[in-house]
Design a protein that fits this description.
Layout (H helix, E strand, L loop, with lengths): L1 H18 L9 H7 L7 E12 L5 E7 L2 E6 L3 E6 L5 E6 L8 E4 L5 E5 L4 E6 L2 E7 L3 E8 L5 E7 L5 E7 L2 E6 L12 E6 L5 E5 L4 E5 L5 E5 L13 E6 L5 E5 L4 E5 L5 E5 L7 E6 L5 E5 L4 E8 L1
Antiparallel strand pairs: 1-24, 2-3, 3-4, 4-5, 6-7, 7-8, 8-9, 10-11, 11-12, 12-13, 14-15, 15-16, 16-17, 18-19, 19-20, 20-21, 22-23, 23-24
Length: 309
């Protein structure tokens, strides 16, 4: 009965969004095809930990998965990869400055792009050569991700920390910028993680406002999620890592409460991962089969979870 209700809830969410014209299927043709399949998967009654990978990255700040390898970074100058089969380590790159990379993303070709907020630059690893990709001047990059449109989305704050924005780049060229809503109010205070949803929405976790901000491809504000639907159980909400899955769910790491919020694309809490031995979940990544990789901040463990079927 629970599975039937969950399926009906997801179908209703899909119909509601389609009626209100909120899909940005113009991003790519396959985005429209993916949204048609949203009702085909349901949540497990109880998420399962399938695997635990022990790393020497403590604290563990960022995680990404590409081609059967898990890429990680923390408070050191290198980005490493772990083979999912053998768990063998490999150093992928060292930052040019010797600073810790503040965030990184993997392109479809397996190239690494990383942010260095102290240098105010975005760097690109290509053919074993690290080069400056974007010089941000008076802005400090805190988070980035590769977009399905082919640009790089960078969340940043100004040097005086009074302004924050998300900017898309193709090479050195700006493709888009989000900073204010339609009423001129600031969208972001201190953006720390960013992810693009399968429908083109841009999702940002904000350490200043303690919320997740979602805008569509054109930068039109859609919703905030502040954990309000779990206030009775958890009166605090400090969102950290953020990722999305094939069903356009937005998954948010709640480090302080040792849980993960799963929100649909209209901002409703649809599931919740807790009581499965998570210890300070900080960074998240979803694989191609909707397996969830959770990085634990202080322990440096990576837990691979199954939460949908």
């Amino acid at each position: 009965m629970v599975d039937i209700l969950e399926t009906l809830k997801q179908v209703w969410s899909w119909i509601f969004v389609k009626k209100n014209g909120r899909d940005q299927s113009v991003v790519q043709q396959n985005i429209g095809q993916e949204t048609e399949q949203l009702c085909f998967k349901t949540f497990l009654k109880q998420p399962m930990i399938e695997e635990v990978i022990f790393t020497n990255c403590q604290p563990l700040w960022r995680i990404s998965v590409w081609n059967k390898r898990i890429f990680i970074s923390g408070d050191e100058k290198s980005i490493k990869s772990i083979d999912q089969t053998t768990h063998g380590y490999k150093d992928e790159l060292e930052t040019l400055s010797g600073n810790s990379p503040d965030d990184f993303s993997i392109t479809d070709l397996g190239e690494i792009i990383y942010a260095d907020w102290q240098e105010r630059r975005i760097f690109h690893l290509q053919n074993d050569q690290v080069d400056t990709m974007i010089n941000l001047g008076g802005w400090k990059p805190w988070a980035l991700c590769c977009s399905d449109t082919g640009d790089i989305l960078v969340a940043m704050r100004s040097d005086d920390a009074r302004r924050a924005r998300v900017v898309g780049y193709q090479g050195f060229t700006k493709t888009r910028e989000y900073c204010l809503d339609s009423k001129g109010r600031r969208l972001y205070g201190s953006p720390i993680f960013i992810a693009e949803n399968k429908n083109g929405d841009v999702c940002v976790s904000d350490a200043h406002y303690n919320r997740v901000t979602v805008v569509d491809l054109k930068g039109i504000f859609k919703f905030y999620y502040s954990g309000q639907q779990m206030l009775r159980k958890y009166p605090t909400f400090y969102p950290k890592g953020i990722t999305t899955d094939s069903q356009c769910h937005i998954l948010v790491a709640d480090q302080q409460n040792n849980c993960i919020h799963i929100v649909d694309r209209i901002g409703q809490l649809v599931s919740f991962i807790t009581d499965i031995s998570l210890d300070e979940p900080y960074c998240l990544c979803v694989g191609k089969a909707d397996e969830l990789f959770v990085g634990e901040y202080h322990k440096g463990h990576i837990k691979k979870l199954r939460y949908m079927q």
